[in-house]
Write a structure and sequence with these properties.
This protein is α+β, with helices and mostly antiparallel strands. The chain has one domain. A seven-stranded mixed beta sheet has the order 1-9-8-7-6-5-2, with helices on both faces. About 3% of the residues have low confidence.
Length: 239
């Protein structure tokens, strides 16, 4: 979907993506190096629009606004605790814990870090529940939301992969964009995360902003359905 300069967003996702770019541009303009070192990403504020949209999805599904907690620490197993981007707590139970990540530029340098970070965070949280019942009788529900800037680099087919033992043939020739999609697809399919949302976007030279949701199992619509199901389950047990 496309949004031209001066246009009003047609939907909440479009508004969140626009806020993503506006925040990045605003942060970049305040940096001495024009953002070349990635300071606008380190500020974290660029994902606030997406985060707030997700918070509203939980509220619309039936959670009180007071249940939304930003940047909480949650217990781990291999480490003492981990700061998540957002959690939803209701009547003493963890409704959801969510991570909001993005990648703008430097994909080849950072893609493996994103994979390892996402896998480690979920694995540690589930281990805390399995070994210590850290979240009580209600098991965790984890969500992963990712925004990727589409560039020539993200769409370029991957180089040959060498390994001491044969790699999964699925990854041969995959572009970074497709690798991210495969990662999230497997996370959700294997219940590593219980829901995902994958957005690709571009900010064009003429000021237009476009976005798409190329992974059918991780769209805004599928994410909303998953959230509604989780909220319905929690309220059926606790109300």
């Amino acid at each position: 979907m496309s949004l031209n300069p001066g246009d009003e967003p047609h939907d909440a996702t479009q508004a969140a993506v626009l806020a993503f770019w506006e925040s990045r541009f605003d942060q970049r303009s305040k940096l001495d190096d024009g953002g070349r070192a990635g300071g606008e990403a380190r500020s974290g504020a660029h994902m606030n629009g997406v985060r707030d949209l997700v918070a509203s999805i939980f509220v619309d599904a039936g959670m009180p606004e007071s249940s939304i907690i930003y940047e909480p620490y949650l217990p781990g197993y291999y480490r003492a605790r981990k700061r998540w981007d957002m959690a939803v707590e209701y009547k003493g139970s963890l409704v959801a814990a969510l991570e909001f990540k993005s990648q703008v530029g430097s994909v080849a340098k950072n893609i493996n870090n994103r994979f390892e970070e996402a896998l480690g965070t979920s694995t540690d949280t589930w281990a805390a529940q399995t070994n210590n019942a850290a979240f009580g009788e209600v098991p965790p529900w984890l969500g992963y939301v990712f925004v990727l800037e589409e560039t020539e680099e993200t769409e370029r087919p991957g180089r040959n992969l060498s390994s001491l033992f044969p790699v999964d043939q699925t990854f041969i020739g995959m572009s970074p964009n497709r690798r991210y999609q495969e990662m999230i697809s497997r996370f959700v399919g294997d219940n590593v995360y219980q829901a995902g949302w994958f957005i690709t976007t571009q900010a064009h030279e003429d000021g237009a902003v476009t976005y798409s949701e190329p992974l059918a199992t991780a769209t805004g619509r599928s994410f909303r359905v998953a959230v509604q199901g989780r909220v319905n389950l929690i309220r059926s047990m606790l109300d």
